[in-house]
Every structure is written in C-alpha cells, then in structure tokens.
Design brief:
Layout (H helix, E strand, L loop, with lengths): L9 H9 L16 E5 L7 E7 L2 E12 L10 E7 L15 H16 L9 E3 L3 E13 L4 H15 L1 E5 L5 E10 L7 E8 L2 E3 L4 H6 L2 E7 L5 E7 L6 H22 L1
Parallel strand pairs: 4-6
Antiparallel strand pairs: 1-2, 2-3, 3-6, 5-6, 7-8, 9-10, 9-11, 11-12
Helix pairs in contact: 2-3
C-alpha cells in the first residue's frame, strides 16, 4: 500500500502510536531514509551543507567576520545561530520576520552547540579586546516534512566542520573570495536529538502528522562521550521521571547513530 496516497488525521496517528506502530511502517526508534550530508554547497559561505532526513531538507551556511570582542569576554570570539523557515518549505510558514517556530529552532540548536563549547572561542581571538572571529550560522528550511530539530542540529555541526577561514592580508583586510586550509577550532561533535511523545509512546524522527499529534518533546544535546550539554522541553504536556530517563537514553543512542553519518 502506498502510504503517500493516504491522508492520516491526528486520531489515526494517535491510535497507531498507542499500539507502538507508525503509518509509514517504521519502528518507534527508526529514522527515515535516506540520511544524507552534502558539504560545500555554497561558494560564498565559509562553510555550508545540505542535510536530508527522509523528505526533510535543510541547509546551513557559515559566515565569519572580524569584530571587536564583547567587553565581558575580551579574549574570545563569538557564535550566533539563526533560522529561517521559508514558505516554500511548508505552507505553515509566512514571509517576514522570524516567527516563534524559527526562533525556537535557532535557540534550541544554539544552546546545544554553545553550552557544550563545540568551538574553542578563545582560539578565535586575534587581539585581546580588539579583534576576534565571530561565527554566524544560518539555518534555512528547504522542505519541512517533520523533525527539523534533528536535521538542523546535524546541518549546523556539519557546516561548522566544513568551514575554512578566509584569507586575511597584512593590513588585516579579509578576502572572502579566497579561503585558507585552516578549519575552525572544533573541540567536539555535539548533536541534538529530539524525542517526541505521541500516543503515550516515545519516538524519533516524526513526520509532520506525528508532530501534530505530539503532546510533548524533549531535546537532548550530547557529545561523543555521552556528556549532556543541554536539554530543552517543548509542548504543553508533562513527562514523568521515567519518561525523561528513557528519552535521554534514546537520544544518546540516536546521537551516536547520526554522528556516524557526520563522520
């Protein structure tokens, strides 16, 4: 049976989930395929990737700029992550200033990267209190078929690893048309995995229909050693301690799975 030709409403999704089933035949802990990472897709960015998880596609681009460090961190560079959810990727999104889903996606992704100190920001400093590299990452949705959180987290991490510094001349001018072989000072690979509760069961990589049926979710950011750097709950429902522990274990396992794709 071709599930793509069938419309599933919320009640159908919930009924299947309660039985531990999904309408596309996957297990609750199974990702859609293919999972693909295409690097260096933009000539104008210092780092860029396109990530596909099933039919969900996002791109992430990195730009570097030399700026004056913040007064409270004079010996460090900086990081900023933004997200744009385009109307072309889903009819849910409208043109204009970022709305709450885009703001939340950017904040959740940023928190996982920032709190785990993926980038050694002290190594971004050129002159204390005067000049340092600032890393700006833009996430753009190409097609939202569900689970933008995991796709965005994977895309940002891959884009940071793809980044090369631009050429800087003796006078301190940046030539963005030429890049060196020097990569960002990446200290660790941190990935954020979001676990959704649908019909009383925990699952990964939801479709849009499953996201609509979700009552709560938990995003867990961790590195390759299993150290958790950030956790973010979403949705109106609550989770028991047992559910939180199960969600964390599942998130750590799936982070290792996606990290294999990253390598």
């Amino acid at each position: 049976m071709n599930t793509a030709m069938i419309t599933f409403n919320k009640n159908t999704v919930l009924a299947l989930a309660k039985e531990g089933k999904r309408f596309d035949g996957r297990k609750l802990d199974e990702y859609r395929g293919p999972i693909e990472i295409e690097s260096s897709i933009s000539k104008s960015a210092e780092g860029s990737v396109k990530v596909r998880i099933g039919d969900t596609v996002v791109i992430a681009g990195v730009k570097l700029s030399l700026e004056k460090p913040y007064p409270d961190t004079p010996n460090q560079g900086g990081l900023m992550i933004n997200a744009e959810l385009t109307p072309l990727s889903s009819s849910r999104y409208e043109p204009g200033p970022p709305q709450m889903p885009a703001i939340e996606l950017a904040r959740v992704t940023d928190r996982g990267i920032r709190e785990s100190h993926v980038i050694d920001t002290k190594k971004l400093c050129i002159t204390k209190g005067e000049k340092a590299w600032f890393v700006m990452v833009d996430i753009v949705s190409v097609n939202d078929a569900g689970n933008l959180f995991d796709a965005a987290g994977l895309a940002v991490m891959a884009a940071l690893k793809d980044t090369k510094f631009p050429v800087v001349d003796e006078e301190g001018n940046v030539n963005y048309k030429e890049h060196t072989d020097e990569s960002l000072p990446i200290a660790k690979d941190t990935l954020s995995i979001t676990i959704f509760r649908v019909g009383g069961n925990l699952l990964v990589d939801p479709t849009v229909e499953e996201e609509d049926a979700c009552d709560t979710r938990l995003t867990v950011s961790s590195d390759a050693t299993g150290v958790i750097s950030a956790m973010q709950k979403g949705g109106e429902g609550t989770m028991t301690i047992d559910e939180v522990m199960k969600a964390v274990d599942l998130a750590l396992d799936k982070a290792n799975f996606l990290r294999g794709k990253l390598q």
